[in-house]
Structure formats: C-alpha cells, structure tokens
User: Which sequence fits this backbone?
C-alpha cells in the first residue's frame, strides 16, 4: 500500500469516527481506489493526543470484507471499545487515528514451544493465539510500544485471549503471524505518516 492510499484510509477513518460520534451515522465514500474494494484485514486504533494513551482499537484480523467496509466498521467499533467509555464529541480534537492494514494470518509451525521465541520478530510480526474457544490478537506495534521482548509479547498475547501467561507453551495452542502496514495521524486531523 503506498503512502497516498494509506493517508486516504486514515482520513476516511477519521471522517467515519467524527460522523458517527456526532450523528450516530456514517457514510462510506464511494469514490475510492479499486484496491479498497479488495478483501483485507484492518484495525482502527484511537490514541489520546498528545499523551498517546490507547483510547480504542477494534478490527478484523481476517480478510472477510472489502477493505473500505472493514475500515468503516472498525472505525465505528473503535469508538465503542468495551475497555473504555464511548468516545465523546469533546474528544474528537484530542485523539489521533491510526489504521493498520493486515496481511493474511499464517500459522507458525514449531516442534517445541521454545522455537516460537526464535521465529517471531518484534516490530514486524503481529500475533494471533488460539486455544480451544479462546482467541487473542496483538498488532506488531504493541510489543514495541510496551518495550516487550518475545517472551513478554507471548505472555501479553495469552492474557489478551484470557489465557494463563504461559498458555503459548501448552499443547493444543496455535500461533499465527501477520504483517501490518501502519498509517497514523501526527496530530488530530493532521498529516499522516507511515508507522
């Protein structure tokens, strides 16, 4: 995805967030690049500005919908992340919008759990964990922002899924990796840069 398309995705996400918070509605622009109609995983993340605290992050890990539709749904959902109160109109000028476009998740194969530690690259690999009905996802930027090593990243992933910290070492646990192209506002409604 080139920078112009990434910047447009962030601007559309901002527009959807603002329309939704102000009116409860949101319209998706029709005049967008053809690539936006291809199915893709995507997450919309909202951070406070200038503190850069998480304010909401919801998305689609799998390419289930056309990118433009998944983007709009994730932007609306990020306004209602269950970890936080719903986003208010007064906050719109105090948040920055970030969009992560994901590659298709691929299972990481390992003979022994310890092999995962060598196969995962911090800052490059987003991770999904599955065990039974539990599932959790962390975007590639999370361990970088948290200062985690690979072991801490896997523990954080387990906790996100509601599992014990060491569940990634247990039989029956599956790990998947995905890549992400990240585009974010530098300030509220400001210039967009690649993350």
Assistant:
């Amino acid at each position: 995805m080139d920078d112009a398309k990434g910047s447009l995705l962030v601007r559309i996400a901002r527009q959807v967030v603002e329309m939704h918070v102000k009116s409860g509605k949101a319209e998706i622009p029709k005049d967008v690049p053809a690539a936006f109609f291809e199915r893709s995983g995507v997450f919309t993340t909202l951070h406070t500005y200038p503190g850069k605290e998480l304010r909401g992050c919801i998305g689609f890990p799998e390419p289930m919908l056309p990118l433009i539709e998944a983007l709009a749904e994730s932007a609306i959902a990020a306004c209602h992340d269950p970890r936080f109160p719903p986003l208010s109109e007064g906050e719109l000028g105090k948040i920055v919008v970030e969009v992560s476009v994901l590659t298709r998740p691929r299972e990481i194969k390992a003979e022994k759990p310890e092999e995962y530690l060598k196969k995962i690259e911090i800052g490059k690999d987003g991770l999904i964990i599955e065990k039974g009905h539990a599932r959790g996802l962390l975007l590639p930027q999370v361990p970088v922002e948290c200062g985690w090593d690979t072991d801490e990243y896997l523990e954080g992933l387990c906790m996100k899924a509601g599992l014990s910290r060491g569940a990634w070492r247990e039989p029956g646990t599956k790990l998947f990796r995905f890549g992400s192209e990240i585009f974010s506002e530098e300030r509220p409604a400001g210039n967009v840069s690649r993350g």
About this structure: The chain is about 30% helix and 25% strand. The longest helix spans residues 3-23. The mean pLDDT is 96.
